[in-house]
Design goal:
This protein is α+β, with helices and mostly antiparallel strands and 326 residues long. Helix content is 27%, strand content 24%. The chain has helices at residues 7-21, 52-64, 116-125, 141-147, 212-229, 250-256, 285-303; strands at 25-30, 42-49, 69-72, 78-80, 85-92, 97-100, 107-111, 128-129, 150-151, 154-155, 160-166, 172-176, 199-206, 208-209, 263-264, 267-269, 277-279, 312-314. Helix 3 (116-125) packs antiparallel against helix 5 (212-229). It binds flavin-adenine dinucleotide.
Length: 326
C-alpha cells in the first residue's frame, strides 16, 4: 500500500478491527508525539495494544487483511517520515513483567512493551544484576531486542535467554537467543521482509544475584554518565550512526570534521554529543534526514569512512532522493 487508502476503506477496517479485537482505532493519528525525535506524519490506522492478547489479535487481523503492519515501541530509534506510515501502526504498550527470583538462574519475563529503564530499576530493586545498562535505553523490551540495544559494555544478547515471537507464517514460538541473529546493533528482526514483520511478544532474561547497594551505585553511575554526555531532554533518536568496526567512534569522526552545531531547518548536530541530531526548533523528518546526509558525506570526504545509519528512517519516504542521504 503506497498511497494512503481511501477514507471508506480505512473506516471499514477500523470498524472491523474494533469489533473483532475490541480495541479503539484512530485514523490519521499524527505520529510525532509517539517518537522521541518528535517528527512523523499520520498513521492510516493507529491502535494501542495494552496487553499480549490485544497484540496477538491485531497481528492476526493485519495478516488476514494483508494490511501492512508497523510496531512502535517508544519510537526512540526512529525518524518517521513527514508523510507518515501507511497501513496499521500498533503502539506496543503491553508491559507486564514478573521476576522468577527462585529460578536458577533468576529470570525476568517481560512483555514487549515494558520500558527497559523500568526493567533495570525493578530487577535492581529485587537484587538482580544484568539489566543495569537498560537504564540508558529509552525504549521498550521489543525495540531493544530488535536493535540488540546496548550501552556501557553490555547488550541485550548478553542477557537474553529467549523470546516469544510471532513468525512471518503467523504462529507464536519461543525462540532461543542463539536463533535471533544478534550482532552489534543487529538481529534477525531487522531483516524480515514482507508486509507483516516478526513480532516480539515477550522476552526472558537471565540475571544474577548481587547486593542491591552495588546495583544502585551502578545505576547512579549510568544516570550521571548520560546526563554528562547526552543531550537529554531535547528531542533526538539517540546515536544517528553506528560506530565503524575499527578506529574512532562515529561521534569522534563527526566532531573532528567540525560538524557540531551544523543545522538544517529545525535539526542540528548536538554540541554535547556529535553523533546525536536534535530537533530543537520543531523541525521535520526531512530536516533530520537531510542533515544526516550532509554529516555522512562530510565524514566520507574528510576521513574516507562510510558511516551506516543506526536510526531507522521509517514510513513512507517514497518521494525521497536517495542522493540526499550522502
Ligand atoms: C536519548 C537516547 C539515548 C539512546 N541511547 C541508546 C544506547 O545507549 N544504546 C542503544 O542501543 N540505543 C540507544 N538509543 C536508541 C533506542 O533507545 C534503542 O534502539 C531502543 O532499543 C529502541 O526501542 P523502542 O521501543 O523505542 O523502539 P522503536 O524506536 O519504537 O522501534 C525500533 C524498531 O523496533 C521495532 N519494534 C518495536 N517493538 C517491536 C516488537 N514488539 N516486535 C518487533 N519489532 C518491534 C519497530 O518496528 C522498529 O523497526 C537511544 C535513544 C535515545 C533517544
Amino acid at each position: 500500500m503506497s498511497a494512503p487508502p481511501t477514507d471508506e476503506l480505512t473506516t471499514r477496517l477500523a470498524i472491523e478491527m474494533q469489533r473483532r479485537v475490541g480495541v479503539r482505532v484512530a485514523r490519521g493519528e499524527p505520529l510525532a508525539r509517539y517518537t522521541t525525535m518528535r517528527v512523523g506524519g499520520p498513521a492510516d490506522l493507529f491502535v494501542e495494544a495494552h496487553n499480549a492478547f490485544e497484540l496477538r489479535g491485531l497481528v492476526r487481523f493485519a495478516r488476514s487483511r494483508e494490511l501492512p503492519l508497523f510496531l512502535l515501541g517508544r519510537g526512540s530509534d526512529l525518524v518517521v517520515s513527514d508523510a507518515g506510515i501507511r497501513g496499521l501502526v500498533v503502539l506496543v504498550r503491553a508491559g507486564g513483567w514478573r521476576i522468577g527470583a527462585a529460578a536458577d538462574p533468576p529470570l525476568l519475563v517481560a512483555e514487549a512493551g515494558l520500558a527497559m529503564a523500568k526493567a533495570a530499576a525493578e530487577t535492581g530493586r529485587a537484587g538482580l544484576s544484568g539489566l543495569e545498562f537498560g537504564l540508558a535505553i529509552p525504549g521498550t523490551v521489543g525495540g531493544a531486542l530488535w536493535a540488540n540495544a546496548g550501552a556501557h559494555g553490555h547488550e541485550v544478547a548478553g542477557v537474553l535467554v529467549s523470546a516469544s515471537v510471532i513468525g512471518a507464517e503467523g504462529s507464536e514460538t519461543v525462540r532461543p537467543a542463539a536463533e535471533l541473529g544478534f550482532g552489534y546493533r543487529e538481529s534477525r528482526f531487522k531483516h524480515v521482509t514482507g508486509a507483516v514483520p516478526e513480532v516480539i511478544v515477550s522476552a526472558t532474561f537471565a540475571l544474577e544475584p548481587a547486593p542491591p547497594e552495588s546495583i544502585a551505585a551502578r545505576l547512579d553511575e549510568i544516570r550521571r554518565w548520560r546526563q554528562g554526555h547526552q543531550p537529554l531532554g531535547l528531542p533526538s533518536a539517540g546515536s544517528v550512526f553506528r560506530n565503524p568496526p575499527e578506529g574512532p567512534s562515529a561521534g569522534e569522526l563527526i566532531d573532528r570534521a567540525g560538524l557540531k552545531g551544523r543545522r538544517v531547518g529545525g535539526a542540528v548536530v548536538s554540541e554535547k554529543h556529535a553523533n546525536f541530531i536534535i530537533n530543537d526548533r520543531a523541525g521535520s523528518a526531512a530536516d533530520v534526514r537531510r542533515l544526516a546526509g550532509i554529516v555522512r558525506a562530510e565524514v566520507r570526504r574528510r576521513w574516507g569512512v562510510e558511516l551506516r545509519h543506526e536510526v531507522v528512517f521509517a514510513g513512507d519516504w517514497s518521494g525521497w532522493e536517495e542522493a540526499a542521504d550522502g
